């Protein structure tokens, strides 16, 4: 198991290097002048040259990249241009808020997806299966920002039962109850697409497992249908773990629309605002942290998969 994890860790290194190169090059080619943002449009050429030298922007791009990676490995993500504070603190606080939203949405997505997929697989040919398939397809097709706006208009604003934005109330807010009220609408919005994908994939997996020979053998031995279903669901665990890992990674990187619509103070909203402000250090840090989290999630999923199915360790 240790050798398996080491191989996975070594395989993740070139992925992270490739991501860092893409992020660095992308930031360099997008419009925006960080020096002008810091000094203002009336800055003198001497002041620009001095700041460029201090920031290392007068160096060749390969040198700038290596310096940036070196600082990155030391935990130095730079200083925010717009907020004039350390980027590391900003990104970690925002990432923690994104993790809270992602965890809530993931629980909803997995519960909805498994329930819909199981019903669609085990009740084929019946109206309830058709309804489950329809719900899964609709949840995949609906744009998140449209769903979010509809929930704000008809549930938050229309009924006043739930808040429209933020993580806590501005006055007298705080505590788990306040957090739960604020997370319901963005959590449901973020969970819809992963729930539909999990439902479709889980339905197919359950149908495949239920058609295998060992299911007929268990029925021939007189085993109850409930125990047969438990055996079948156990055999779907590796596939379900893979799907769940991919969707969890999707949630971490794909909640930018949800966080923007609901003003959730996560890393998606932070990066979105930083793009408008041309705050390049925050954009770089946000993308790198999200990519690192996605790699870590896949490592954890692979470890769980290998624990459940030893054949994966032998063939990897």
Task: Please outline the helices and strands.
Blueprint: H1 2-29, H2 34-39, H3 45-55, H4 61-73, H5 87-122, H6 127-141, H7 144-159, H8 176-210, H9 213-220, H10 225-235, H11 237-254, H12 256-261, H13 267-277, H14 280-308, H15 310-314
Description:
The protein has helices spanning 2-29, 34-39, 45-55, 61-73, 87-122, 127-141, 144-159, 176-210, 213-220, 225-235, 237-254, 256-261, 267-277, 280-308, 310-314. Helices cover 78% and strands 0% of the residues. The termini are close together. With 316 residues, the chain is an all-alpha fold. α5 (87-122) crosses α8 (176-210), α6 (127-141) crosses α8 (176-210) and α13 (267-277) runs antiparallel to α14 (280-308).
Overall number of structural domains: 2
What CATH architecture of the largest domain do you see?
Orthogonal Bundle
Largest sheet: none
Structural class by helix and strand composition = mainly alpha
Regions with pLDDT < 50 over 5+ consecutive residues?
Answer: none
Estimate the mean pLDDT confidence.
Answer: 81
Using the alpha-carbon principal axes, give the shape: globular
For the record, the CATH class of the largest domain is: Mainly Alpha
**Beta-strand share of residues:** under 5%
CATH superfamily of the largest domain, called what? MetI-like
Report helical residue fraction: over 70%
The helix/strand order is HHHHHHHHHHHHHHH
The total beta strand count reads 0
Feature tags:
MetI-like fold; mainly alpha; 316 residues
